[in-house]
């Protein structure tokens, strides 16, 4: 070993135990380049976990809050979300992936990365962490190593991901692991990243590594999260499985549990669906899906924790999470207002003090940033990190190495005037087409009357590192190879009438239990041009049973009508997006064309543009 920095005997012993020349080579390389003062290798022991917790406090990256086990961390005011503009996939010269995926010439990108890493850890401690994506000892497992100079990144990662030293040992010296190199870069006096203009993420599919620097926000720095997600998507698409931006949850009816996965773009109801009362959670963000020995689809959560949005978490709407983040346990809260070490965030259902400390430093009501924008007490994307097993609704199979059998897949979009609250796809391939057509309406205040529609196939567009054609082809094939494919559904919780939401926030529980019933062949449904929709009587019964509420026929007819013109417009938008993408499988275009034909036929048959669900019965 030739590590050019201070390293203690315990760290050396851990590397000797892992006994992997590739691991040692990577550490040697980045020590030489980043020039840290000290290197610490972390293991699985409680002592090591404690070391990181204490280091985050010592480095002033975190501060204790009043509740036991809770700490607060701040990212730079301008480092509150993933930086898509400065994220690239490294590709050989002349190669392209898609209109929508940013790439950079391999050598050029590596040169820039190495230049920026040069000396970046001077005077700092390099932390070497070993984790495992997916449950340990399982065909889902992918060992991943993270090098970082940020103790809070290491800390939040150890909350969110399973330990991996044993998995590395079991590699028996092979190169079959991911690695992520991260540096928060030079820090300001308050411990936040200074050189935001030099913030970069480089994704190297060849070496299965990601290099990320000059950031601290979790989505850019916690290596096993969105950085490894790109590497996993690349692997899945070379092999025969899926890596998806999905939650995994158990839906309960009496003693019966049916597992669902769900992909929703940001702000479309993903976490709130996974947390619906009476259900159980396996994971809320990233899932690996595989075919098991019996030909079924099984899913495993890649993570063991939740990096959740804290805004609007309150006792009334999200009692499970609220309890977890306000009672003693290990929690890191990011980017909220603190006053006397008490955290406050927007939408918490409590009065928020008019001054305190937040992601902008000392804060007072009315404070504006350099661009004259009013600074909110906590950032809209402020997040918390906690372990799933600390939630009352953790599923008993959350760590099952076999994963859970998937009965249904939900694709959730957001629009105010086009798609129905819930519909079941006509087949696996039709469902893939529906998932590939997800749109979400922007919720930014200053937008036109119809909102801005953003398209994200399977809610995964931000993370795709393979051409869309390859990704969709792999999806189609995955389902075709299964003996029993999950049933695919689409939801839209955001339908509006006269500018108001038609459905209450809690109504999604009725849609979910209808989907559960459909998977278990309990309800009949109405076939429409876009798929199967619920019958009025079934929803009426569900609303009565679940909420003791009358579901009016009028509300049903309004939200489940088939709006031909708007649905055709959506098809046109989707078609124009896919037109510019090479090698989209023929079956995708076939489903698009068939759906258009069915909509036009229905318009002609019923002689109107808005067709009531009952007309199709
Ligand atoms: C998302 O944006 O989908 C998240 C948060 O889960 S981040 O870690 O930033 O990706
Ligand atoms: Mn996510």
Describe the protein in words.
The model is unreliable at 444-449 (pLDDT under 50). The radius of gyration is 25 Å and the shape is globular. With 617 residues, it is α/β, with parallel strands linked by helices. The chain has 3 domains: 6-60 and 82-239, Phosphoenolpyruvate Carboxykinase, domain 1, CATH 3.40.449; 243-304 and 398-616, Phosphoenolpyruvate Carboxykinase, domain 3 (Alpha-Beta Complex), CATH 3.90.228; 308-390, no CATH class. The chain has 17 helices and 36 strands. Bound molecules: sulfopyruvate and manganese (II) ion. Residues 245, 285 line the site of manganese (II) ion. Residues 82, 218-219, 225-226, 266, 285, 307 line the site of sulfopyruvate.
Describe this structure in a few short sentences:
The chain is an alpha/beta fold and 617 residues long.
Question: What features would you highlight for this structure?
Answer:
617 residues, alpha/beta, Phosphoenolpyruvate Carboxykinase, domain 1, Phosphoenolpyruvate Carboxykinase, domain 3, 3 domains, 10-stranded mixed sheet, 9-stranded mixed sheet, 36 strands, 30% helix, 25% strand, globular, binds sulfopyruvate, binds manganese (II) ion
């Amino acid at each position: 070993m030739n590590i050019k920095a201070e390293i203690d005997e315990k760290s050396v012993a851990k590397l000797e135990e892992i006994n992997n020349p590739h691991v040692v080579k990577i550490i040697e390389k980045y020590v030489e380049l980043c020039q840290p003062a000290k290197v610490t290798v972390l293991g699985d022991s409680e002592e090591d976990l404690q070391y990181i917790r204490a280091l985050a406090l010592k480095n002033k990256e975190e501060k204790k809050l009043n509740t036991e086990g809770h700490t607060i961390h701040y990212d730079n005011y301008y480092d509150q979300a993933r930086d898509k503009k400065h994220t690239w996939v490294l590709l050989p010269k002349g190669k392209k992936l898609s209109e929508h995926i940013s790439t950079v010439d391999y050598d050029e990108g590596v040169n820039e990365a190495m230049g920026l890493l040069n000396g970046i850890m001077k005077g700092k401690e390099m932390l070497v962490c070993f984790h495992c994506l997916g449950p340990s000892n399982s065909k889902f497992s992918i060992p991943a190593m993270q090098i970082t100079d940020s103790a809070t990144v290491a800390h939040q990662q150890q909350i969110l991901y399973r330990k991996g030293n044993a998995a590395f040992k079991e590699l028996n010296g092979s190169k079959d692991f991911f690695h992520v190199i991260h540096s928060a870069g030079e820090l300001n006096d308050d411990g936040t990243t200074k050189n935001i203009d030099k913030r970069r993420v480089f994704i190297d599919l060849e070496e299965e590594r990601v290099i990320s620097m000059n950031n601290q926000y979790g989505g850019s720095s916690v290596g096993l999260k969105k950085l490894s997600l790109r590497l996993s998507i690349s692997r899945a698409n070379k092999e025969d499985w899926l890596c998806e931006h999905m939650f995994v949850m158990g839906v309960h009816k009496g003693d019966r549990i049916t597992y669902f996965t769900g992909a929703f773009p940001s702000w479309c109801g993903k976490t709130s669906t996974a947390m619906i009362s009476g259900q159980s959670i396996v994971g809320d963000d990233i899932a690996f899906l595989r075919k098991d020995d019996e030909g079924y689809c099984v899913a495993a959560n890649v993570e063991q924790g939740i990096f959740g949005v804290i805004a609007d978490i309150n006792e009334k709407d999200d009692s499970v999470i609220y309890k977890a983040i306000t009672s003693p346990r290990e929690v890191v809260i990011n980017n909220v207002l603190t006053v006397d070490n008490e955290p406050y965030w927007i939408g918490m259902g409590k009065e928020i003090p008019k001054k305190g400390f937040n992601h902008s430093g000392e804060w007072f009501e009315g404070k504006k940033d350099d661009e004259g924008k009013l600074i909110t007490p906590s950032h809209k994307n402020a997040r918390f990190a906690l372990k799933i097993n600390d939630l009352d609704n953790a599923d008993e199979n959350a760590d099952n190495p076999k994963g859970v059998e998937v009965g249904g897949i939900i694709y959730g979009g957001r629009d105010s005037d086009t798609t129905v609250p819930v519909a079941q796809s006509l087949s696996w391939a039709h469902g893939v087409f529906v998932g590939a057509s997800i749109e979400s309406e922007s919720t930014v205040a200053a937008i036109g009357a119809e909102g801005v529609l953003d398209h994200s196939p399977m809610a995964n567009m931000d993370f795709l590192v393979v051409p869309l054609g390859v990704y969709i082809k792999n999806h189609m094939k995955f389902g075709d190879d299964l003996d029993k494919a999950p049933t695919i559904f689409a939801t839209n919780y955001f339908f509006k009438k006269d500018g108001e939401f038609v459905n209450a926030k809690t109504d999604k529980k009725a849609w979910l239990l209808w989907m559960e019933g459909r998977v278990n062949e309990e309800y009949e449904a109405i076939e429409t041009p876009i798929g199967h929709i619920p019958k009025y009587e079934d929803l009426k019964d569900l609303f009565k049973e679940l909420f003791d509420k009358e579901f009016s026929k009028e509300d049903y007819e309004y939200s489940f009508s088939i709006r031909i013109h708007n649905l055709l417009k959506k098809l046109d938008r989707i078609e124009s997006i896919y037109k510019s993408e090479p090698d989209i499988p023929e079956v995708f275009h076939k489903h698009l064309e068939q759906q258009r034909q069915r909509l036009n036929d229905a318009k002609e048959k019923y002689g109107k543009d808005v067709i009531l669900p009952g007309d199709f019965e």
